[in-house]
Inverse folding.
DNA sequence: GCGACAG
DNA sequence: ATCTTGTCGC
C-alpha cells in the first residue's frame, strides 16, 4: 500500500524506505531507459545566514549542453548528521525538481545512493520520490570499505558494507582520487558507473555536478548569503 | 567506551 | 559544507 501524499517530501523516512523495498522487490530492474537528460543537484550552505542554496543543472547527456538551471533558497531546518543528509538537503532539492520545466531522465546526486548504512542515501530518496532513475556520486565515503582502484581512468573496485556490495570506487581520471558511485533508483551498478564515467571525462567529478556546484556557490554570493 | 562519519 | 592565501606541481 503506497502512502498518499500531496508533496513528495510528505513521505516519512519509513514510508520512503518501505516504498523502495517494494519497488526493488517487485519491479524488475529493466534495462535503464535511454538517458537523454540528467539533472545534477547540489547545495551551498551559508553558515551565518543558516540558509541553504539549492540548485539544479539539467544537461543534454549526449552533447553536454545546459538545458536548464534553477536555484532556490531554503532554510536549514535540519542539522547535518551523517546518514541523514536527505533531511537537510532533500526538501529544497525536491522543491527544485518539481519546478523544472525540462523532462529529466536521470537525477545525479552529490552524495551516496545505496552506499548508505540503511541502503538509502539521498540519491535513493530523491529517485524513489520522483520515480526517476538516479545515481549517487560522492567525493568521500560514508560507510563500507574497498580496495584502491587501478591508477588509470575507468578502473573500479567494489565497495562493500556488512557483506553487501553497495557501490564502487571509480577512478574517473588517471592518478586522481576515486569517486564513490552507487545506484540510487532504477539503475544497477554498471549503469551507474557507465553514466558517471561518461559524464566525467575531463575532471574528477561529472561535469553536471561541477556546474551545479558552481551554480549554487555563485548564487549564494550574489544573494549576499 | 571507542572510532567513524555523504554534505 | 564553511572559514581562507598562498603555493606546489603538471
Amino acid at each position: 500500500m503506497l502512502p498518499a501524499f500531496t508533496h513528495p517530501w510528505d513521505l516519512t523516512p519509513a514510508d520512503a524506505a518501505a516504498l523502495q523495498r517494494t519497488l526493488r522487490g517487485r519491479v524488475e530492474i529493466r534495462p535503464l531507459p535511454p538517458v537523454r537528460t540528467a539533472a545534477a543537484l547540489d547545495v551551498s550552505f551559508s553558515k551565518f545566514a543558516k540558509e541553504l542554496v539549492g540548485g539544479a543543472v539539467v544537461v543534454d547527456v549526449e552533447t553536454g549542453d545546459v538545458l536548464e538551471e534553477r536555484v532556490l533558497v531554503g532554510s536549514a531546518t535540519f542539522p547535518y548528521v551523517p546518514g541523514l543528509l536527505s533531511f537537510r538537503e532533500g526538501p529544497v532539492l525536491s522543491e527544485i525538481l518539481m519546478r523544472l520545466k525540462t523532462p529529466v531522465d536521470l537525477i545525479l546526486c552529490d552524495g551516496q545512493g545505496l552506499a548508505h548504512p540503511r541502503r538509502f542515501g539521498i540519491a535513493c530518496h530523491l529517485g524513489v520520490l520522483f520515480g526517476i532513475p538516479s545515481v549517487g556520486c560522492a567525493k568521500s565515503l560514508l560507510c563500507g570499505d574497498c580496495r584502491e582502484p587501478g591508477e588509470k581512468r575507468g578502473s573500479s573496485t567494489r565497495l562493500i558494507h556488512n557483506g553487501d556490495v553497495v557501490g564502487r570506487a571509480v577512478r574517473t581520471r588517471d592518478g586522481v582520487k576515486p569517486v564513490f558511485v552507487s545506484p540510487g533508483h532504477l539503475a544497477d551498478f554498471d549503469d551507474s558507473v557507465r553514466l558517471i564515467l561518461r559524464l566525467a571525462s575531463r575532471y574528477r567529478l561529472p561535469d553536471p555536478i561541477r556546474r551545479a556546484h558552481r551554480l549554487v556557490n555563485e548564487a549564494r554570493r550574489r544573494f549576499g548569503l
User: Anything to note?
Assistant: Chain A has one domain: 13-141+181-223. The longest strand of chain A covers residues 37-46.
